[in-house]
Amino acid sequence: DIQMTQSPSSLSASVGDRVTITCRASQSISSYLNWYQQKPGKAPKLLIYAASSLQSGVPSRFSGSGSGTDFTLTISSLQPEDFATYYCQQSYSTLYTFGPGTKVDIK
Amino acid sequence: QVQLQESGPGLVKPSETLSLTCTVSGGSISSYYWSWIRQPPGKGLEWIGYIYYSGSTNYNPSLKSRVTISVDTSKNQFSLKLSSVTAADTAVYYCARDRRYCSGGSCYSVYGMDVWGQGTTVTVSS
Q1: Per-residue pLDDT band at A107 (split at 50, 70, 90)
Q2: Percent of residues in chain A assigned helix, strand, coil, to nearest 5
Q3: How confident is the model at residue B106 (pLDDT cuts 50, 70, 90)?
Q4: For residue B103, is pLDDT > 90?
Q5: Whether pLDDT at A106 is above 90
Q6: Distance between CA atoms of B112 and B103, rounded to whole angstroms?
Q7: Pairing of strands B91-98, B57-59
Q8: What is d(CA B116, CA B3) in angstroms, rounded to the nearest whole number?
Q9: Contacts of A42 (CB under 8 A, 6+ apart)
Q10: How many helices (H) and strands (E) does chain A have?
Q11: How far apart are the CA of B78 and the nearest CA of chain A, in angstroms?
Q12: Coil, strand or helix: which one is A81?
C-alpha cells in the first residue's frame, strides 16, 4: 500500500493568513495526488486534482504543487469558509489511500 | 448537474450484510467509474472500492473478502454490499464519481473524485 502522511495534523490560523499543508507519499506517485476539503457533517469536496489543477468552481486562493512524493496545498488568504479538514489522496495505485487529514481552525 | 444519493438501512446487526445503493441523477452512469468511501466516527476517509459502468471492479484488499460492488445501468444506480459486519464497520458511507482520463483502451485516475453523495450513516449494533 502507498501510505500518505500529512503535516501538520492541525493548525490554527487567522482570516487573511497564508496557510500551507504538506502531504507526503511513501513512494513516488507522479502527480496522481488530489486534495479535498471536508466541513463537519458534510461530504468531502474536491479542490485540486493532478497535484496542481484547480477543480472547476474552486476559488483561486487554493493552489497545489509537487510531484513524486512531496506535495503542498496552499491557501493564499484564509477566508472564514475555509475552516475545515483537508485530506490528500493518491490515485497512482489501484488501491486509493487518503492522508489522515489536517484540521484548520480559527486562531 | 450530476447528483448522487445514497440509500439503505441505517442500522445493521453484527454478522449481517450491509447493503447500500447510490442513485445517479442529472447524468448517465455510463462511461464513468464510481467509488464507495467510508468514514468512521471522528476518523479519516477509507476507500472501499470502485466499479466501472461496464461492471469491472476493484476493491480495497483490507475489505475484499467481504465487499461486492455492482451496477445497474438501467436504473442509473450502483450498490455496495459488505458482509459479516462488526462494530468496526460503523461509519458514514459515501458514493462518489471517479473521473478518469481514458485513451487507447486504458484509463488513468487523474481527475479525482469530483462528485460526492451527502453520505449515509450506518450503525452496526444488535
Answers
A1: confident
A2: 5, 50, 50
A3: confident
A4: no
A5: no
A6: 17
A7: unpaired
A8: 8
A9: B118
A10: 0, 11
A11: 18
A12: helix
**CA atoms of A20 and B6, how far apart (whole Å):** 33
Q: Are B117 and B94 in contact (CB under 8 A)?
A: yes
Cell representation of residue B10: 441505517
pLDDT in tens, A37-94: 999 999 999 999 999 999 999 999 999 999 999 999 999 999 999 999 999 999 999 9
A67 touches chain B (CB under 8 A): no
Question: Which of A2, A34, A46 should we substitute to test contact with B (largest number of B Cβ atoms within 10 Å)?
Answer: A46
Interface contact A97-B113, CB threshold 8 A? no
B49 touches chain A (CB under 8 A): no
- E strands present in chain B: 3-7, 11-12, 18-25, 33-39, 46-52, 57-59, 67-72, 77-82, 91-98, 101-103, 106-108, 113-116, 120-124
Whose CA is closest to A53, among A44, A65, A43, A61?
A65
Q: What is the distance between the alpha carbons of residues A36 and A45, in angstroms, rounded to a whole number?
A: 5
Query: Residues 11..40 of A with a Cβ closer than 8 Å to B: which?
Result: 31-32, 34, 36
Q: Are A66 and A92 in contact (CB under 8 A)?
A: no
Cβ(A68)–Cβ(A9) below 8 Å: no
